[in-house]
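Q: Hi! First time doing this. I have a protein sequence and I read that you can turn it into a structure. Is that right? Here it is:
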Amino acid sequence: MKPDDLNYRHLLYFWAVAKEGSITRAAERLGLSVQTISTQLGLLERQLGQALFAPQGRSLVLTEAGRTALIHAEQIFQIGGKLREALAENAHTRPRFSVGITDAVPKLIAFRLLESLLQPPLKLRLECIEGEFEHLLGELALNRLDLVVADRSAPQRANLRLDSHLLGNVGISLFGSIDLRDRYGQEFPRHLDGAPLLLPARTDPLRGAIDAWFEANDLRPEIVGEFSDSALLKTFGRAGLGLFPAPAAMHNDILAQFEAHPLGALQGVCESWYAISTHKRLPHPAVAVIRDAGGERLVS
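A: Yes, that's right. Below is the predicted 3D structure, encoded as structure tokens:
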């Protein structure tokens, strides 16, 4: 028997007979003729190749095969009910779009890239999930995510058919509270020796470029904190506990949210952002929107 031979309606007739204990009562319950129920039940048993009922007096009782079939039939009906509920809900809700965001991606960057998904013409129901890079790529490969926004491209692996699209490169400046700016920002970067510094974790691609910049300028700041979460890094910066790197183009947002002022640009230091999606001939419209306009949103 092929899977498409199984008839949902036949299972309903079988279920009714099992619950009522007789074809006559099942026919009354369903508003059908006894002949219809009997014929369709016989067809189901022939398709399955096993008897589902055995006579017991004037009633019918389930065989061992019948008891197994009843368990699965009820599960199928439950799934069918959930399907109807899901479709009814979807008719009145926005379609879901799930985005994985690595911890290294600043919240301001993620917001700028994704805010348009909540507006016409897309009007999606956005689901943002933070996590580690490798874990998010695995979820993307399993189609549990529609997109991953990261600070690096996906590795080239035979078992992962992922597309990485460079959204843009953003210059990095050093920011700090007004007290730290006044103390260390004069004639930038000459007075950064010994300055308290909050940096991304050593696994972050940006970290190597920042370390190289300080070394090239023969500067020795005091590293007081290292963070894998960019938001936590900036929160420490807002408290005046150290200078911190952030996208230069977002100085107004950083001032508003973290009360931090730019000291100066780290010349030659840039941060790159990527949109990673599964390889598809027809990508989701939202993926195309982010790819096409992502760079403009990062520098606007």
